[in-house]
Amino acid sequence: MSYNVSPEAVSGVLQDVAPLLEGYGTQFTAVGERLAELSAACMAEPVGAELGALTEKTINPAFTNIAGRSSNAVNAVNTVLGILTAADAQMDADAREASMQAAQAAADDPPPSAEPAAHYGPGPQPI
After folding, report:
1. At residue 118, what are phi and psi to the nearest 5 degrees?
2. Rounded distance, CA 17 to CA 23, Å?
3. For the range 58-65, what are the long-range contacts, defined as Cβ-Cβ under 8 Å and sequence gap of 24 or more?
4. What is the predicted pLDDT for the residue at 117?
5. pTM (2 decimals)?
6. 47 vs 32, 43, 51, CA distance in Å?
7. 66 contacts 24 by C-beta, under 8 angstroms
8. Which residues of the chain have pLDDT under 70?
């Protein structure tokens, strides 16, 4: 299995997700406000109390869980992206160093010795 990761593409996705996470906080606040308005509009204490309990026991924990998991996922991907970028830079530096060392080693080698020319046949003939 091969994994080809494009840091630019991953960074682009993170940049697209960041405003959505910020908007999530706004939506969370709006839901709370609407539930409070609904509770007031009912003008019935038992209904308001049940809406409050629903918000406290179910809605708020669920929203907090979603926000926390989303934030953790974005942070984890951001951390991995940093590691990949650093690893790519290190591999590039290592490859350049190895290439330079190989070139230097070849430059330090003594020139190849001249081999005598191979001659086949009867040789020069007297005139």
Report:
1. -80, 130
2. 10
3. 59/31, 59/35, 60/32, 63/28, 63/31
4. 65
5. 0.61
6. 16, 8, 6
7. yes
8. 1-3, 109, 111-112, 116-119, 123, 127
Q: What b-and-e string marks burial along 1-12, b requiring 16 or more CB atoms within 10 Å of the CB?
A: eeeeeeeeebee
Instruction: Round to whole Å and give the CA distance between 80 and 7.
Output: 10
Q: Which pLDDT value is given to residue 104?
A: 83
Radius of gyration in angstroms for the set of CA atoms belonging to the chain, rounded to a whole number: 36
**Both structure tokens of 101:** 């060392």
What's the one-letter identity of residue 108?
D
Q: How many CB atoms lie within 10 A of CB 17?
A: 14
Q: Give a three-class secondary structure readout of 28-80.
A: HHHHHHHHHHHHHHHCCHHHHHHHHHHHHHHHHHHHHHHHHHHHHHHHHHHHH
- In 45-71, which positions are buried (b, 16+ CB within 10 angstroms) versus exposed (e)? eeebeebeeebeeeeeeebeeeeeeee
